[in-house]
Amino acid sequence: MKVPSMVAVLAIALTGAPVEAQTIFQTLTNLRATVQQLSGHPANPQGPSPTPRSAAVTAPAVHQPPPAVIPAVALSEDPSDSRLEGTPLIASKVETFDVLGFKLGMSPREVARIAARNEIYSGPGGAQLTGSFDMEAAEIANRELVRPTETRSKTYVATAFGESRRGESFIFHFTLESTGPKLSRLNMEAKLNGQTAEQIRAAFISKYGPITPTNNPYRFLIWGDSCMAPNCKAVLEASVFGSKISIKLDRGTAYENQMRAALEARSKEVAAKHGTGVRF
User: Fold this and answer.
1) 215/230 Cα distance (integer angstroms)
2) In whole angstroms, what is the distance from residue 88 CA to residue 78 CA?
3) What angle do CA 236, 239, 242 make, to 5 degrees?
């Protein structure tokens, strides 16, 4: 006669079920469930609960402001500044005009301040840099020197591209003067934003005064020198095409020629200082 094991006897006593058809593992499992029921702690059919883990902590996103329209390196190395903002606008005198606060002759630093206030940031193309007035003069002088002079210098901005949250696009052109770069041309393009050409015309005339007569069909509005010669003065032009308007505030080729002559005169001084003359 087969004597049942102690495990089997205990299982029969507690469960009332025979164990011949069960493995010891199944018997122990059933026994554990019975004990937990009798003690008031039912078994977890899914097994023991996993040890709780701390929730992953996600670092808050750091908001990075868009890059400034004038590179920081150009501002840090160019000490010049101007205070033209707020100076009176004189009707029909383009040199005093402003477009969104930008005026001809402004330093890059002042342009940067006004751009930030108008939420204008660096656009496609970024910025183009150049050297100082003296470095550019030395570059010209080196063309005729046997032993080139030193041309390393600080970095200045020559052209900067910008765009605003309103969809406006800008190109800021600077011309080197001995005191630093100065805004010499501003190109702006914007959507009509619900205005008609007639409404824009009236608004521009109200701000800038009477327009300059011109027979050029491609110029919608113009103030100042409308000449096409290589020695023109300051001009403001506005042209409507389709759903957009294009605006140009330009100091003129006469100013550019004057600054070029000043640069070349400085280059002659550099060449005379460092040159040793011609042997013959």
Assistant:
1) 19
2) 27
3) 160
Predicted confidence band at 184 (pLDDT cuts at 50, 70, 90)?
Answer: very high
| Amino acid code (one letter) for 226 | S
Residues listed for the chain:
280
Sign of CA dihedral 45, 46, 50, 54: negative
Q: What is the pLDDT of residue 273?
A: 86
Residues whose CB is less than 8 angstroms from the CB of residue 115 and which lie 6 or more positions away in sequence, other chains included: 68, 69, 70, 121, 162, 170
* Whole-model pTM over 0.90: no
pLDDT digits (tens, 9 = 90+) for 204-245: 999 999 998 876 666 678 888 877 677 889 999 999 988 999
Q: Say if residues 84 and 103 touch (Cβ distance below 8 Å).
A: yes
Give the integer Cα–Cα distance in Å for 233 and 95: 9
pLDDT greater at residue 73 or residue 188? 188
The terminus-to-terminus CA distance of the chain in angstroms comes to: 136
Per DSSP, the chain holds a count of helices (H) and strands (E) of 7, 9
Confidence category of residue 125, pLDDT binned at 50, 70, 90: confident
CA dist 119 → 68, 100, 149 (Å): 9, 11, 42
* Interatomic CA distance for residues 19 and 253, integer angstroms: 108
